[in-house]
Structure formats: C-alpha cells, structure tokens
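Cross-posting from the modeling subforum.

Setting up a comparison between two proteins and wanted a second pair of eyes on the formatting. Protein 1 (sequence, then structure tokens):
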Amino acid sequence: MDLAKTFPSLVKLDLDFVQIESIFWEALSTHHHIRSMRLWCIEVGTDDTPRLWDVCKRLESLELSRVTIEGGGVSKDAVFDRLRELIIWEVSELDVRSQMDLIIQCPMLECLEWDFDGWMSLSGSRLINHPLQNHWPYLNKLHINCNLLDLEMALILQSVGTGHGNIVDLQIGSCQLETQASKALGLHFNTLVRVDFARFHHASSSIILDILCSCPRLEVLRAKNVSAKDIAEHGPWVCQHLRELEICFHVGDSDQDLQPLIFKRLSTLVRLKHLKLNSFLRSVITDSVLEFRLECGMGQLSTLQQLASLAFGVHSRNMRYFPQLGMDEATWIMDNWKNLKLIKGRLNKDQEIDIQLKSAFKSHGINTS
C-alpha cells in the first residue's frame, strides 16, 4: 500500500470504529504530508504502536478517543514538537503516567484536552520526579477531567506559560484544587477568558470568588456552589467583560440579609448577555438559594441592559429550590430588560402561576421553555 501515491494530498485522517491492519500503519509511517489524525474506538496492537508514535511526530493535531494502545508509551527520547493540539480521552492500556509523559513530550502544545476515568496517581512520572518550569509556553487552552491530586494539578499549572500566565480557556473536572493548585491557578488570573467548572462539583466557593475578583479579562464562567457568606468576605468583582455566567448562589438561613449584596455584585456585570442560576445538577445542598425577587434586591439588576437570556436550572424535586417569581417580577423584567429574548426553566413552584408568567412573557415577545 502506497498512501503517498494513492492519496498524495492527504493531510487529515479520521478513523472511527474500524479494524486497522499493520500494513496500513506501515504505509502511513512513510506518508510525510499528514498533519492531523483523529482515532475513535480504534485498537492499536503491540507491533503497530511504534509506527503510531512515528506518525505522531509529523502531526500538528492528534485526537485519541476511546483508543486501546497495547504497545505501551512513547520512548523517552521521542519529541513531538510539531503537535499544537492534543486530545486524550479514555485511552485504554496506556496508564496515566505514560499519558502524562506523552504530554510532556509535546512542548509546543497550544491546546490540551485530557480525560480519564478512575483515580490514578502520577507518582513516578517525569512531571513529579523533575518538575518543569514554563514547559508549555504556548499552551492557552487546558481542559482536564482527571482525578489528579492537588500537587499534581499544581505542577501542571505551574508548567504552563511564561511565568506571567498563559491559559485563556480553562475547564476542570474531578481534580483536587486545594492550597497548592489554587495558588498555581492564580498565575493565570490575568489571562483567563473562559472558565468552565460545570463538571467540577468540588470546586470551593472561595476559589470561584477568587476568579470573579481577580480575572479582569474573564468573559465566560460556569461554576457551582458559591455561598453568600463567602461573597461578603470577598471584595468587588473585577470581571467587567463577563458575557456568560452560570452559577448557583447558596444562602444560609442566617445569611438571608446578604441577598441584596449578591444582586449588587451581579449588577456590576453590565456586559452580561446570558445568566443561568441554580444549576446544581446532582449537587447536595442544605442551604436555600438566591431568591430572584424584588424584595430581595433584584431591582438592582436594571444595569444589565444587554441581557438576552435568563435561565433557572434547578434539578431538584425539592420545591424549596424552585424560583418564586411573581407578576411583579415579570413586569419589572419586561420593563427593564429590553433585549431579553429567552427565559428558560420553572419560574414558580405553583404550576398555575408558572403558566401565567410564561404566557405574559410570550405576549411580550420573550420566548420561554
């Protein structure tokens, strides 16, 4: 098989759910034009693994999704200095230390997406034995959903950028983000534009507020579990460029008088276009949530003139967590948010009132769902 002759202009290869023979890998290893490869649900045998890694040396983009690699990791001397994008998702037979070593051998990465199930330590990997400073100077997109320890996550964050922050797009799930990792995350506060903690159920309220109070370029934040008490203990929010916010505010029984402060903080986000509240999917909470009512301070949000969508993402059967909007709130919304086009979610625990509110919004040209 001569791929160079058969497909002389082949630069991108996508393979899904197919059985690949050794002759294919032999042919591909001699094709010098390929720059992007995506493997989905593919098995790579022991004899073919070295050829796979040879091909990867010429790539700029590589995705390994639900791939089984039986021949082990890359050699310590291999360098994948052309790779700019690397996606590793649920790769079998290649342990987490070998996956980490592969990532280390891609020093020019701009985008890394890494996802694996289970709790596995990076102990023994080169990241732990020889911490890397500024190893990925160009990495600006980091999506990582791995059960990493606090120190391991800290070492990764410390190895990204040039010492003055570099990450623009950050998505974290499952990792420990405690004392060391939180401090390392602070290195990137000046460059963060998008932060997605929607799958990160253990992100502390304090960390989320550190982001709101310290990331001036932030435009998108998806997070959970921010307490009113912590908001009172933190300073003003500096993220004046925020366009999209998904968050759940928890208000303890003794902190009900702090609800106006939450609305005051929200009122400073004058560029906000999309707001989703109370999206605590499967989260266990004991506090009440922010009441979206005029008597609680909602009227302060008249500054959000660019708001285009409002959503209430309650995923609980407990009626305690449903919004309690009334006709006064609906009238206020219609009078003050002229750009609002969509309201999603349950608006009142009383089904009849919920229907009445949605009917009023629809008659005003605001879609509901």
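Protein 2 (same layout):
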Amino acid sequence: MQIKEIRKIECSLKVITGLHIGGGNDEIKIGGVDNVVIRDPLTSIPYIPGSSLKGKIRSLAEWTTGCVDTGEGNAFYIKGKASDAPSNALQIVKIFGNGKPDGLEDDNHTVLQTRVAISDAFMTPESQKLLLEKLGSYTETKYEVSINRLQGKVGGGGPRQIERVPAGAEFTFEAIYKVFHKSDDAAFNSAEETAFQSFLEYIELLNHDGLGGGSSRGNGRVEVQWADSQARYSVAWPKTDQKDG
C-alpha cells in the first residue's frame, strides 16, 4: 500500500447566525462576558479550531450513516479485524482514523491511519476589516436568560452573556486528504475513491447543522462555500495542474 495522491480541499464558512466556539478565560472581570470565544493569542482575532471542524464533520458522518451506536455515543474504534466491521463504520474510521481511546485496556483492535487533516479556519481579511469598521470589534455579545415556567420570571442567576462572531463573517480552511493505492487490489482502490467522495459530502452536512455552542438555540449556522464549486479539490501531490471533483 502506498499514497497515490494528496488532495487539497479549500472551503470558506460564511456565518449565518452568530457563532460561539468557547475559549478559556482565566481572568474574571467585573461586567465581563461570561462565555468568550476562542481567539488567536497574538492577534485576538477569533478562529475555528480544526479539531472542532473535524469533530463536527465526523459526528455528522456517524449520525447520517447509522454508526453512532457502534461507539455507544462516543467516537468509536474498530475492534478485532477491520474486515469484520460494518461497511459504514469501516469507512468512517478509514477517513477519520481508528486510534484506541485513552485509558482503554483492550488491545484487540485494528489501527487505521486517518486520511484527513483539517486546518484551523481563520477569519478572512475582508471580514476583519468590515467588523472593525461597523462594530469596532470582531465579536458581538448576546444576552440569554432562562425563564421559570411557573413564575414567568427570569431564573437561574439572571442573564448570561455569550460572545459570538456576528453573522456575515467568513472563515477559510483547508483539508488535506491522502488517497492510498494497492497495485493488486481493485476493490481497495475503489473503496478509497468512494470514501473520499463521501468525505466531500460530509463537509456539505455542515450546511444543515450548527457549529459551536448553543446551536439548538440558533447559534452557529454556517454556509459551506467551495473555493471552486466545480472542482472541489486539487491534487497537491504529485504536482499537477489537474483539478477534479
């Protein structure tokens, strides 16, 4: 088995409803925001961690292929021989990896290397400029309250402050995908291409869910936009000018 191609997928994410991906805040300020977004420590510009993107895409892939029960709600791994695994589950771990979870004693599992690496998503310069011109900040503050159902009054300690990246902002990210090849195994090679095409469709699922915190309350809706809507990827290695989708 060897790497046949390394493919690069370039996308942007347009924020449709305010986006909150939480970051640590060790400093407590009087009147400060309760739940802040994660930011670049050098520029203070919000970003979307690649781990958040990969985790969300994998979660959606597992739900839409009926594999959630395989891991009892957790990101699963394949025990024993991979050939004994359900085909949907095998494709998921082929794309996203099959490392053994920390603390698990069972060594009877097949290790499958992940095909995909997803970068952090960074706010575009145009969005940075627009937000600073219009708001003087890269974020907005949303207030949320919980209501006591019997009294009809605010409960739970009063309003909560949620920091969000406003609607209209755009982020860009890259995914690098390795396609493997076996010279004497046509079925394996066909499954590799099928898995890659499935991964492209899993990215599209972000259009129908939400990223980050509070998605059930309307936060985090995004729109996936391909850098090239016709050719959804380019071949990064071996070097070629060919694009395909």
